[in-house]
TrEMBL record:
Keyword tags: Hydrolase
UniProt keyword annotation of Nucleotidyltransferase present: no
Organism: Salinicola lusitanus
Gene Ontology molecular-function annotations: hydrolase activity
InterPro entries according to UniProt: AB_hydrolase_fold (IPR029058), CocE/Ser_esterase (IPR005674), Galactose-bd-like_sf (IPR008979), Xaa-Pro-like_dom (IPR000383), Xaa-Pro_dipept_C (IPR013736), Xaa-Pro_dipeptidyl-ppase/CocE (IPR050585)
Protein name per its UniProtKB record: CocE/NonD family hydrolase
Pfam families in alphabetical order: Peptidase_S15, PepX_C
Domain of life assignment: Bacteria
All copies of domain Xaa-Pro dipeptidyl-peptidase C-terminal, residue ranges: 291-526
Amino acid sequence: MKIKQDFPHRVREIENQWIVLADGTRLAARIWLPEDAETTPVPAILEYLPYRKRDGTAVRDELTHPYFAGHGYASVRVDMRGNGESDGLMEDEYAAQEQADALEVIDWIARQPWCDGKLGMMGISWGGFNGLQVAALRPAPLKAIITLCSTDDRYADDIHYKGGNMLLENLGWAATMLSFSAAVPDPLLVGERWREMWKHRLDNMPLLAEPWLRHQQRDAYWQHGSICENYGDIEAAVYMISGWGDSYVNTIPRMMENLSCPKKALLGPWMHKYPHFAIPDPAIGFLQEALRWWDYWLKGIDTGIMDEPPCTFYLQDGVPPAPKYLERPGEWVRTSNWPAPTDEIETTILALSERGLNPDGELSGDRLIASPLTAGSLQGEYIPLWFGADFPPDQRRDDGLSLTFDSEPYAEGLDILGQPTVAATIASAEACGQFHVRLCDVAPSGESALITYGTLNLNLRDDADRITPPIPGGPMDVRLPLDLIGYRLPKGHRLRLALSSASFPLIWSPQKRADLTLKAGKPTLELPLCRAETIPMPFEPPESATPCRVETLRAGQPRRTIHEDVGSGEVTVTIEDDMGDMRFESHGLRVEQRAKEVYSSHPTDATRTRADIEWVYRASREQGEGRFSVEVTSRYHLHCDETTFYLSAEQRAFEGETLISDRSWEREIPRTAI
């Protein structure tokens, strides 16, 4: 990545600025300005997050925000209430309070002498969510947003539920936030108040997994903050961006189809990161592309960005399966709309037949789908996030635990772009069940690479807000869209459709093992094929501002391991998210964070499914003013029987050797939909 230091504007940084809200709460902001902004006001760009500007996002912030300031924008990074150096408490994600505070922040920014009254919001993940949510409230200064790796439907596409099945990421992210929210305010910025602020947070720490687990259907809890409830609420221009290695891809076709505001979409090969430093390559000049967007909507400069086709997609070449990719070769295409016209995307129908996956035929007899509850251990991470072995490796083991249908080799290959969809009639042996479908690329060598997948909780098969348990043995017509994908099947490779009745540890096991039957008839796979012309790389090479000066005391070592007890058949997947130990050279703050997630499942006994997660956070300043040393250990545990989830958590916090907080939680939560 090219580092830029010579900008059109000299940049002035305000390391910490208090924004005082109407209730007296102070939010902490870090601001980068053109040096002459107070005499020549400029538009502002807001990024609003709970992840601590002091250390949590400081590395990426320094790549990004000074770059915008150097090109004539006030770039403002604000920590939400209850996080970083900001006052107050955060009760839940995407709460009404969070959005109300954002409106006050926007009003404050618009009234500053360095702002001309026009704003944009930008963010990835949490920041992408609240950009959409705040845009739906229509604050007058907000003219445009860039939302990355986000969703319009909190139930369908966040880290909680997928196809009505509970993701284990539901507990994983609750454990992450239990640790992140316990981070200490920096004494250099808040003074001696830091102990009082920190203790207040620890004493009032929310158990986020509890509401997330209690709301097992798509009810009012999830409808709040889901802009799909009324797409017409958004009038600001929306640029939506994600990557094929991320989990939020399905929101883009829905928003492109339903938003009535000005809009653009971009999908590249990336994991859950900003595209100027994400993997796999090719990374792009995201900051230059963002400037084209901001210049058009905030400065009225015709950059040509709205003259281009609205949708840009990267078609990944099929490559051998691997748990981590540094690069994915492929080609770029653009479509004139979404849904795309038939001359750009053409749908072909393949039958799941006696002869495999082919353009015609039918299934003359029923087929059993009898996966052990341990099937799915090679699915990979739901959200590749920490640069570890997060991508799905060779799928042959899980294919062997599934009912599979293979095509003949495609002599000329295939270009797939869209959401492949399976339509079938199935039956469950129990009054519950999961239907999981993977589409794979099978090489002549036999290697099986995951292309895309979908999953469905049969209790919620007709409607995510209505429980309709299967009648054991009774036929059910299901239609399951797989995740949006852009993929180039190589010449001579086959497609494989793999059907299973479990996928652990992606999703929590059903109430009991429920084998399925694929009923005889004409089950089909609708396959969207790309006919659009490929184009040369449409983006400039990546650039950034000067990176943050960080001393690495211990490099992070993320790992993912699978252990099988041959005697019992129990499978345990262990994920170690180790982010290392680092010191920020500009202010001396030292931070170490690591997590260990352990998920276990038994092939036949669903009551033996369990999850144990531990996070360790250490922070200190070893010399000079503002010296301190703290450590927080946070743990979550979940197990179940057929009727109840048993959730527990604990958190212990120390200043030096002194125990500051020791909390524990025990909850029993009825199983209603999952």
